[in-house]
Amino acid sequence: MNLTGSQILLESLKCEGVDTIFGYPGGAVINIYDDLYDSSIHHILTRHEQAAVHAADGYARCTGRVGVVIATSGPGATNTVTGIATAYMDSIPMVIVTGQVPTPLIGNDAFQEADICGITRPCTKHNFLVKNIRDLARTVKEAFYIARTGRPGPVLIDLPKDIQVATHDFTYPDTVELRGYKPTYSGNLRQIEKAAEMILAARRPVLYVGGGINLSGANAELLALAELTRIPVATTLMAMSAFPQRHPLALGMLGMHGTFCANMAVTECDLLIAIGSRFDDRVTGRIDSFAEKAKIIHVDVDPTSIKKNVAVDLPIVGDLLDVLSKLNDSLDQKTEHLGVFREQLRAWQAHIATWQERHPMAYQPSDTVIKPQYVIQTLRELSQDDAIITTEVGQHQMWTAQFFSFTQPRTFLTSGGLGTMGFGLPAALGAQVAFPERQVIDISGDGSFQMNSQELATLVQYQLPVKIVILNNNYLGMVRQWQQMFFNKRYSQTVMELPIDFVKLAEAYGAVGFNATQVDEVETVIRKAFATPGPVLMNFKISREENVLPMVPAGKAIHEMVLAS
Amino acid sequence: MRHTISVLVENEFGVLSRVSGLFSGRGFNIESLSVAPTLEPNTSRMTIVTTGDDRVLEQITKQLNKLISTIKVVDFTSKDFIARELALIKVATEADTRAEALRIVDIFRAKVIDVTPKTYTIEITGAPAKINGILELLRPMGIKEVVRSGPVVIGRGAKGVSG
């Protein structure tokens, strides 16, 4: 079957099971958009290419499928970079197709030309410049394969305009042959056996789990491991929805804004079992005193994650689903040992309970001013169990991680590694496209919201009923908090002087908006918003100088937490 | 510690920049890098000389392996290997030093490949230390230009490295 390059692209996407694309047209992709015009593939037009990438990212995070983006050459392509880097840092599977100037013009500084392969090389898992129509179908096949396998990540395909119009026979390859890419899935049985022995020999073990659990879909196996051994579970920001936070074994988040008990447990443990986590500096604090007394087992599908930041006693490379199933099987067979182990664990659990009692995750409630933590707790109470929560980056993100007790996998979508303000609204958009019937809520700050607020238009155009929560303190709150604590309250450029009427902004786009300025309005506004069809913005005027606590100051060990302002 | 690493890579668009970008992006050192296709035209072999402690070298090896375009990585450092480098040296010669220059060329089994009334251009191959040696001896005469290829390495014995 002879097809044009743009037809081959769309047919290849269909072969990969793609039914939804996020994107923005332009000169260098006009042929693709012409073929999309009567294609069965659903295209969502965002108002900025960065938002298209975040939307595809949100779509991928909540479904586990590969998010797909199309953008034009030059500025369209460069606008995708922040989105791609965001996905890369959090290992999100995506394929980004960018238009490129015709191959004879590449390198000539042509109109809307950018070397996007060069620009995205350090923030993609891999990228391709298609120089020959013969390679197109195979390239798409390889891109999807690379994006979704091993440690997932974004893959970019740069497609010159002359390749889009060239014609070639279309057959989609069945298999992928990549000499240099063979991820290890199966965990080494001897290593796993050693891990089981190390676990049973431990007296103060802690599970330290990361976003890999969601990516691998190993949520049930993690729960089984925790319940089988009764080892407490500390979760990273990326894993807040990977383990039910109301479970008695849940310690909550660890790290810079982690719970007192999670940080103390990791500091005092004699065995740290790191699963799908990567010892990020926001988790470890001062690295040389992180889990100083512990032996470390590290399980990850990506060998480069292991021994990158800390020395490890037992590395296991493999897919978490495979490794945890084998580990559970191995432990299951050691019934007697396991019984003794659990008995001996009681002292450790009691110790942890005293930490939990001493400094539970809490805040000072108020009758006169809206506390952001109260808004988040009320949202949790009034939202559905499977509601998908996205956030931007800053104080509101940390309060959400701390106070929104996530219970179901893939319900917390947040930019962890790159920390991208402006992520939450488009990510919510993508999540709502993936799950039209589920509740999707973007929890935001007034600063972050303005980084991609143009996406209100997209929400209204497609009638995506995303509920937006702005925790509005007229500050860039997290930076202000640092300035308060470490820079003598010199609030340099963190005061958002202009009070914006966000309700009017929502209305200008054709959405609905509500203000809450009094404590007793919080619940009413949330109920009203949830009962209103279509996109709704809720603007909460919160206590202005509320801080995120506990906090481990930069350069300190994680047990050196600041607990009160 | 200095390490010499051979990397077999896909001979394709952008592969050199993937490898060099990995080194610069992660703060690893490159002392020298040489690259050319192997017998198979779709495969190139790079020889990279780098420095770092064990932890850094483990990361370098793993990160190189992680690149989709990388087929194989071999760190020759703890192995028995032969390193050879090519250098082209343009040395200034006056009437009183021309004979001495030729003697040095002879001792090092180098070759004069271009002559002018005021210069010799010398070609030499050998282990990097040998090239350092001849450069030391020629330096007092006045070296006008040096081009070094950086070492390429191969393991001793019958076994070869292939993808």
From TrEMBL, chain A:
<dbReference type="GO" id="GO:0050660">
    <property type="term" value="F:flavin adenine dinucleotide binding"/>
</dbReference>
<dbReference type="InterPro" id="IPR045229">
    <property type="entry name" value="TPP_enz"/>
</dbReference>
<dbReference type="GO" id="GO:0009099">
    <property type="term" value="P:L-valine biosynthetic process"/>
</dbReference>
<dbReference type="GO" id="GO:0030976">
    <property type="term" value="F:thiamine pyrophosphate binding"/>
</dbReference>
<dbReference type="InterPro" id="IPR039368">
    <property type="entry name" value="AHAS_TPP"/>
</dbReference>
<comment type="pathway">
    <text>Amino-acid biosynthesis; L-isoleucine biosynthesis; L-isoleucine from 2-oxobutanoate: step 1/4.</text>
</comment>
<keyword id="KW-0285">Flavoprotein</keyword>
<dbReference type="GO" id="GO:0003984">
    <property type="term" value="F:acetolactate synthase activity"/>
</dbReference>
<dbReference type="InterPro" id="IPR029061">
    <property type="entry name" value="THDP-binding"/>
</dbReference>
<dbReference type="InterPro" id="IPR000399">
    <property type="entry name" value="TPP-bd_CS"/>
</dbReference>
<protein>
    <recommendedName>
        <fullName>Acetolactate synthase</fullName>
        <ecNumber>2.2.1.6</ecNumber>
    </recommendedName>
</protein>
<dbReference type="GO" id="GO:0009097">
    <property type="term" value="P:isoleucine biosynthetic process"/>
</dbReference>
<dbReference type="InterPro" id="IPR012000">
    <property type="entry name" value="Thiamin_PyroP_enz_cen_dom"/>
</dbReference>
<feature type="domain" description="Thiamine pyrophosphate enzyme N-terminal TPP-binding">
    <location>
        <begin position="4"/>
        <end position="117"/>
    </location>
</feature>
<keyword id="KW-0028">Amino-acid biosynthesis</keyword>
<keyword id="KW-0460">Magnesium</keyword>
<dbReference type="InterPro" id="IPR012846">
    <property type="entry name" value="Acetolactate_synth_lsu"/>
</dbReference>
<dbReference type="GO" id="GO:0005948">
    <property type="term" value="C:acetolactate synthase complex"/>
</dbReference>
<dbReference type="InterPro" id="IPR011766">
    <property type="entry name" value="TPP_enzyme_TPP-bd"/>
</dbReference>
<dbReference type="InterPro" id="IPR012001">
    <property type="entry name" value="Thiamin_PyroP_enz_TPP-bd_dom"/>
</dbReference>
<keyword id="KW-0274">FAD</keyword>
<dbReference type="InterPro" id="IPR029035">
    <property type="entry name" value="DHS-like_NAD/FAD-binding_dom"/>
</dbReference>
UniProtKB/TrEMBL annotation, chain B:
<dbReference type="GO" id="GO:0005829">
    <property type="term" value="C:cytosol"/>
</dbReference>
<dbReference type="InterPro" id="IPR004789">
    <property type="entry name" value="Acetalactate_synth_ssu"/>
</dbReference>
<dbReference type="InterPro" id="IPR039557">
    <property type="entry name" value="AHAS_ACT"/>
</dbReference>
<dbReference type="InterPro" id="IPR019455">
    <property type="entry name" value="Acetolactate_synth_ssu_C"/>
</dbReference>
<comment type="subunit">
    <text>Dimer of large and small chains.</text>
</comment>
<dbReference type="InterPro" id="IPR045865">
    <property type="entry name" value="ACT-like_dom_sf"/>
</dbReference>
<dbReference type="InterPro" id="IPR002912">
    <property type="entry name" value="ACT_dom"/>
</dbReference>
<dbReference type="Pfam" id="PF10369">
    <property type="entry name" value="ALS_ss_C"/>
</dbReference>
<dbReference type="GO" id="GO:0009097">
    <property type="term" value="P:isoleucine biosynthetic process"/>
</dbReference>
<comment type="pathway">
    <text>Amino-acid biosynthesis; L-isoleucine biosynthesis; L-isoleucine from 2-oxobutanoate: step 1/4.</text>
</comment>
<dbReference type="GO" id="GO:1990610">
    <property type="term" value="F:acetolactate synthase regulator activity"/>
</dbReference>
<comment type="pathway">
    <text>Amino-acid biosynthesis; L-valine biosynthesis; L-valine from pyruvate: step 1/4.</text>
</comment>
<dbReference type="InterPro" id="IPR054480">
    <property type="entry name" value="AHAS_small-like_ACT"/>
</dbReference>
<comment type="function">
    <text>Catalyzes the conversion of 2 pyruvate molecules into acetolactate in the first common step of the biosynthetic pathway of the branched-amino acids such as leucine, isoleucine, and valine.</text>
</comment>
<protein>
    <recommendedName>
        <fullName>Acetolactate synthase small subunit</fullName>
        <ecNumber>2.2.1.6</ecNumber>
    </recommendedName>
</protein>
<feature type="domain" description="ACT">
    <location>
        <begin position="4"/>
        <end position="78"/>
    </location>
</feature>
<comment type="similarity">
    <text>Belongs to the acetolactate synthase small subunit family.</text>
</comment>
<dbReference type="InterPro" id="IPR027271">
    <property type="entry name" value="Acetolactate_synth/TF_NikR_C"/>
</dbReference>
<dbReference type="GO" id="GO:0003984">
    <property type="term" value="F:acetolactate synthase activity"/>
</dbReference>
<dbReference type="GO" id="GO:0009099">
    <property type="term" value="P:L-valine biosynthetic process"/>
</dbReference>
<keyword id="KW-0028">Amino-acid biosynthesis</keyword>
<keyword id="KW-0808">Transferase</keyword>
